[in-house]
Amino acid sequence: MVTLVVATTIDPASIGPASALLAMPGWHPGPFLQDIPSFVNGEVRLLKHDNSIVAEDHLDKRWEEATNEVVDEIIFLSKHTAVSNRPALTVHPIGIPHLREDDVPPQGGKPGWAAPPSPRIGPWLRLLKKIAESHNLIPEFEVTLEGTHHGPVTNSPTMFLEIGSTAEYWKRQDAAQAIALLVWEGLGLGGCGAVGNWNRSSDRNKVLLGIGGGHYAPRHMDVVLKDGVWVGHLLSGYSLPMEDPGQSKVDTNVKDIGGTWKQSIRVAFEATQSAFPGGEVLAHLDHKSFKGWQKSAIMGFLAKQNIRVGKPEDF
Question: Domains of the chain (ranges plus CATH)?
C-alpha cells in the first residue's frame, strides 16, 4: 500500500512544499506515470505534474495500473485563494456532492461525487497548528479546515493541504517548510510513527460529519481541534441547497423541500463511512446557520437515514 503526494509545477504553493519535502533525506527517482515523474521514499510516492491540481483525475487508479502498487491515500499540495486575502494554512476533504448531473463543475470533480475523506484530516490539522506555532507562523497565518469542495476525482481517501491566500504567501518558504514538515512527520518518514492512522478497534471510533456553517467550518473546527477527534466530510451551507417551500414552517415535510441537500448529505455520509471502516459517523450540525424549517428538515432526513446526531462532547 502506498501514499501518493501530488504537486503541480505551475503552482508555487504546491511545488514549494514538494521541493522542501524532496530536500529531506531518503528520496530517489521512481517510475514515470505517462509523462509525470515520481520520487520514492519508503511507501510514499511524490508525483509532480504540469497541469492544474484539480484537473488530473483518477491518479490513484492510473498509478495502480502503471505500477501494480495499491494506493492507500492521496495528499494534494495546492494554493488557497480567498476573498479576504488572509494568510492561511488549510486542510480539507474534496468533492462536489451537491451538484446535479448536468452541472458543470467549476473546479474539477464529478457532480454528485465525494472522495473518501482522509482519516488524517483531524490529526493533521492539530499537528499543523503545532508546527505553525513552532515556526512562528501564528498569528500571521490562520490554520483552519475548509468545507468539502472541488476535484480532482479520486476513489482513495484524499485530502488537500493548502497555502493561502495571495501570490505573496504562496511563495513563502516558511509556509512551504511547515507543509513539508507536516507531510514528513505525518507520514512517519522521519522514523517516528505516522500520525492519523485509523484503527477500527480503537475505543475512540466516533467520526464527525460536519453539516452547515461557513466555508471555514468554525463550529466544527471547535470540536476537531480537541485531541483524538476524527473528522470526515464538512458540508458548508452552499453544499446543502434547499428550496424554501414558501411557508417556511417548522413542520414542513422533508419531501416538500427541493434542492440537492439530501443527495449531498447521503453522498458525504457514505464516503465518510467508507474511509472509517468500523467507525460510527455522527452528524454535527452548526445549528445557528440554519433557519427553523431547514434544521427541522435536515433532522428529519438524518433520522430517516439512521444517521445519529452528535453533540460536541460525543466526539
Answer: 2-187 (3.40.630.50), 206-305 (3.40.50)
Tell me the sheet residues that pair with 210: 234, 284
> Of all residues in the chain, what percent are helix, strand and coil, respectively (each to 5)?
30, 25, 45
Nearest Cα neighbor of 209 from 157, 277, 145, 265 is: 265
Q: Kindly report the pTM of this predicted structure.
A: 0.96
pLDDT truncated to tens, each residue of the chain (315 aa)? 999 999 999 999 999 999 999 999 999 999 999 999 999 999 999 999 999 999 999 999 999 999 999 999 999 999 999 989 999 999 999 999 999 999 999 999 999 999 999 999 999 999 999 999 999 999 999 999 999 999 999 999 999 999 999 999 999 999 999 999 999 999 999 989 999 999 887 778 999 999 999 999 999 999 999 999 999 999 999 999 999 877 555 555 677 799 999 999 999 999 999 999 999 999 999 999 999 999 999 999 999 999 999 999 999
